[in-house]
């Protein structure tokens, strides 16, 4: 029996099961998609999914900004 039977010819979700929405950026810290994009994933065409996957890496820098911390309290 071949495992190929269970493979799908569609762009797979980028979800990595770290589902936490960043409070300021409003994107998931795991997959970098917005709540709207996550909800629409099942209705997206393969082309739409592929376009979104290309865009996601550029969003990572939005989550690396520090929000205050010790430096903001000194003054």
What does it look like?
The protein is an all-alpha fold and 75 residues long. The protein is 27% helix and 0% strand. It contains 3 helices and no strands. The longest helix has 10 residues. The protein is elongated and about 50 Å long. The mean pLDDT is 85.
Short description:
By secondary structure, the protein is mainly α. 27% of the residues lie in helices and 0% in strands.
Q: What is the overall pLDDT average?
A: 85
Distance between the termini: 68 Å
Helix content: 25-40%
Q: What can be said about the biggest beta sheet?
A: none
Taken as a percent bin, the fraction of beta residues is under 5%
String of helices and strands = HHH
User: Low-confidence runs (pLDDT<50, min 5 residues)?
Assistant: none
Class computed from helices, strands and strand pairing: mainly alpha
Silhouette: elongated
* Alpha carbon gyration radius: 17 Å
- According to DSSP, the number of beta strands is 0
Q: With helices defined by DSSP (H or I, 4 residues minimum), what is the helix count?
A: 3
